[in-house]
Amino acid sequence: MAAEAISRALRDGALEGEHAPALTIKDSIHAPLGAFVFDHILAQLSSNISSSKSQAQLRIVDCYTDPLGWKSQLAESGIVSNRSTQNATTASLCKNARDLDMLFSSIVELGKEVIRETKGRFAVAIDSVSEILRHASISSAASLLSNLRSHDQVACLFWLFHSDLHEMKASSALEYISSMVACVEPISNTTNGKGMNSENLPLIEQNLGRGKFSVRFKRRNGRIRLMSEELHTEQMGINFVPAFEDYVTSQSLVPKVQFSLQLSEKERNDRAKVVLPFEHQGDGKPIQIYDGRRSVSESKTENKETNAEKMHVNEDSGRGEIIYIRDSDDEMPDSDEDPDDDLDI
Amino acid sequence: MMSSNSANNLLDEALGFNDDGGGGGGGLLLLIEDRVETSGAFILHHLIKRRLSSPNRPNDVVVFLSFAHPFSHYDRILRKMGCNLGVQKENKRFVYYDMLNLNYPVTDGEKGAEDLLLSVYGKIQKTVELCSSREGYKNSTIMIDDISLMEVALCGSSNLVLDFLHYCYSLATQFDCLVIILNHEDVYSTMDVPSPLLQMEYLANIVIKAEPLATGLATDVHGQLTVLNKGICQGSGCSKGKIRNFHFRVKENCVEYFYPGSRT
Predict the structure, then answer these.
(1) CB pairs A-B closer than 8 Å
(2) Does A195 touch chain B (CB under 8 A)?
(3) Per-residue DSSP letters for B5-38?
């Protein structure tokens, strides 16, 4: 499943000679479930680390409490008390979210502190890059993420991003840096793309609890692997289930015209019974190879056979058939494997 | 059909408010979006009364930042609804900041605007800290009327507005406050770039939209409210997001809320 594949990739860390795997979790206001996915991935990663030799330790760079240093300024001038800026010992307070160089240093310093005894690597999770982009440019943010990704002590990193808060170029820049992009989309598309009207309300409410979860993996050789499933929010988190065609929804989307655009039940069953002509899925009959010439007698015989087959087909109307004759012995039998899989360009 | 004077009306139910006027606290941000045809100011007035009139919450405080109207405007309206803002102000339960009369800088630009905002935020934090130390304190409420005028006051910097809202929200989560802001949807409707309103919708836990009916103006129905409550996450788990939609009619002293077709 897609979510498990992500967790595995992050847990495995950087491959030999490669930068750390990087995941973008992307959502929008119409499918606001990115935070749930972020929490799930974080929990899975912590669990994976804990199950190995070392215990997972969490360190927080707190850019939420006082990102611009306002509270600190007010506390220093005695206008407010100091307790607003006090944090737990595991949190490092960031008072200037605009300075991404300092932020990078804070992250690396905390990370090194965590792995000091184990001499391993640390993972980085950012909630969220959209907040970073409120205070810094896309080029600075991209530079931060690239530097983290190429740091030899960073095992993996992932971040949350709200795509509709930014221009396309920001989204594209982040996707280029990522080795995995997980996109949360609405399970139901609202009419006209508009907001809350009476027709859309049930769909909008549905999108608050369910979403399509599509993941794009970028392999080393440049090939892309796509996976998708559905996610449902539950009381204690989220659950991923295989995607399935919503037959009722697709029925309602078929335009009402005079032509028959749908298959009947019988037609669907007949299509399912057709044996595909791939040779490794053969039906037990000897494989024929067409030599380019056919004698009259052979064609007559063939006609008789064809007629017999036709009669046979008419008698056995529930079974469809595709007759495939291989052109030559040079033509390799069909296979499910992709011959380009072992390429390492 | 329910009026705003009954114990709990459709709006309160959609917001998750209790009969005693409580609930809806605990670090939440409520965004009211209205339009020229359907002003959402009546929602602000209703919430002021709810937060100040609850007998079980005598120490709750409303901090009100006004960019739109003078104090006398709100005082007159709330008196008709049975709430004396003058007395509440004297008792320090209604803390009113008249932002219209603040001399915001013209020459200093955004830096001067940020300094002014820092000063205003400092006053709010001090007020909330003081209230939270009182016995019997439950919730404070921070209200802003309205965000688009606040942006004008800050030399058009939506970034500063968002920074301010972020800090109010962090204050809300720390001191169990409710932040209520009013903004005008049609001000941002022609923007090509992602609008600041979308940022606020992301930040908000509850979004109330006041819109006209699809069929246009009517004498008996003044508009419709759509309440999107995203649900909250606590230690025991997360509640599911819900949407409620109903109609409203603004009368002299109260507002009626009712489901479509339920009026006799």
Answers:
(1) 82
(2) yes
(3) TSSS-HHHHHHT--TTS--S-SSEEEEEEE-SSS
* Tokens linked to B159: 């970034």
Q: What is the DSSP string of A241-258?
A: EE----HHHHHHHS---S
A236 close to B (CB below 8 A): yes
Among B167, B229, B240, B241, CA closest to B204 = B229
Give the pLDDT confidence score for residue A250 in this predicted structure: 46
Is the model's pLDDT at B13 over the cut of 60? yes
Residue B104 and residue B156: Cα distance in Å, rounded? Answer: 12
Give the minimum alpha-carbon distance from B218 to chain A in angstroms, rounded to a whole number: 18
Which sign does the torsion angle of CA B171, B172, B178, B184 carry? positive
State the amino acid at position B147 in one-letter form.
I
pLDDT above 90 for B56: no
- Residue A74 is encoded by which pair of tokens? 């007010």
Q: Where are the domains of chain B?
A: 26-221
pLDDT > 70: what percent of chain A? 69
How far is residue A94's CA from residue A63's CA, in Å, rounded to a whole number?
5
Distances B215 to A197, B152, B211 between C-alpha atoms, Å: 12, 33, 11
Cα–Cα distance list, B85 to A323, B91, B94, B227 (Å): 87, 10, 7, 27
Q: Inter-chain contact B242–A205, Cβ cutoff 8 Å? A: yes
Complex ipTM, two decimals?
0.88
Residue A83 has pLDDT above 70, yes or no: no
* Euclidean distance between CA atoms A233 and B105, whole angstroms: 48
What is the distance of C-alpha A311 from the center of its chain?
Answer: 50
Task: Assign A115 a pLDDT band (cuts: 50, 70, 90).
Answer: confident
- Is residue A8 within 8 Å of A23, Cβ to Cβ? no
Q: Which of 3.40.50.300, 3.40.50.720, 3.30.200.20, 2.140.10.10 is the CATH number of B26-221? A: 3.40.50.300
* Higher pLDDT among residues A54 and A326, named by residue: A326
Q: The whole model's pTM is what?
A: 0.79
Q: Residue B15 CB: number of other CB atoms within 10 A?
A: 21
**What whole-number distance in Å separates Cα of residue A116 and Cα of residue A28?**
38
Which residue's structure tokens are 């920001």? A170
**CB < 8 Å to A197, chain B:** 214
State whether residue A202 is helix, strand or coil. Answer: helix
